[in-house]
Design goal:
By secondary structure, the chain is of the alpha+beta class.
Length: about 260
């Protein structure tokens, strides 16, 4: 995509992802509604040494500021998508920094800086358009138009489904009022369905494999529900464990995808 001057309009820029071996990192460029770039480190494996996390956060701060000198916040996450606490104080587990344009030195804080501690001249779209020159972007108006088109398409699909589910049967009923043979056909269908259900209930018609699987699934669900009702505390613990396992699996999968794309 060809980059042009975007200093006078709002744009969205894509995140950049890299794999570092023990963790992967995602850099999200600053934009007009969030004038602070963010760097997220994710450690898919259990964290043993917090000092490794701290030094990795400091490395990423310096690396990304050397690439894009925009004020940035660095945060580390574990496989469960929880913030890694590198300090006993919650507000000291985030690393903030920027490049002093007069000295060229990096200024960093292991705490939330006050408003006047960050350079406001480095936190506007005109400055971003210079620093992020060459980076692909999407204009805010283009994003809105795309979202509107997708909403219109979704609305049409929903209306079509409603027409099939509600409109067609209703139309058949209306038409059948004036045509005798259609009424006879519909009555025959209704009687046939009733006879089929009777045969199934009497055991004269064997259920299909799909119906057997559905019945077995419903029986299991009733069995599980009974035990969940008997022990809701254990059920809640099981839900948390399942959620954590799914989160860890998703985190590991994302790391592998980033590693694969980095290799390409």
């Amino acid at each position: 995509m060809t980059q042009v001057d975007t200093g006078n309009e709002n744009v969205f820029r894509d995140a950049i992802k890299k794999h570092r071996g023990k963790y992967y990192v995602e850099y999200k460029p600053a934009i007009w509604c969030n004038p602070l770039a963010t760097v997220n480190l994710t450690f898919p494996q259990p964290i043993v040494d917090i000092e490794i996390v701290r030094s990795s956060m400091e490395y990423e701060l310096e690396y990304w500021l050397s690439q894009y000198p925009v004020p940035v916040m660095v945060t580390a996450w574990d496989a469960k998508e929880d913030i890694v606490q590198v300090s006993s104080k919650d507000d000291e587990s985030h690393l903030f920094g920027y490049v002093n344009q007069h000295t060229g030195q990096i200024v960093k804080y292991w705490r939330l800086p006050s408003g006047n501690e960050l350079p406001s001249e480095q936190m506007n779209e005109k400055y971003f358009s210079l620093v992020y020159e060459g980076m692909p972007f999407r204009r805010q108006d283009d994003v809105r138009r795309k979202a509107l088109r997708e909403a219109v398409i979704t609305g049409r699909a929903i209306r079509f489904i409603v027409l099939l589910v509600v409109g067609v049967p209703l139309l058949i009923q209306i038409v059948s009022l004036g045509i005798d043979w259609i009424g006879y056909v519909l009555s025959g269908i209704s009687i046939s369905v009733g006879l089929y259900k009777l045969c199934k209930s009497m055991g004269w018609v064997k259920p299909s494999k799909r119906e057997q699987m559905k019945a077995e699934k419903n029986l299991k669900m009733e069995h599980y529900f009974y035990h969940c009702e008997k022990n809701p505390e254990a059920f809640n613990r099981l839900k948390i464990e399942n959620f954590e396992r799914e989160t860890i699996e998703r985190t590991i999968k994302q790391g592998k995808e980033i590693l694969k794309s980095s290799g390409d």
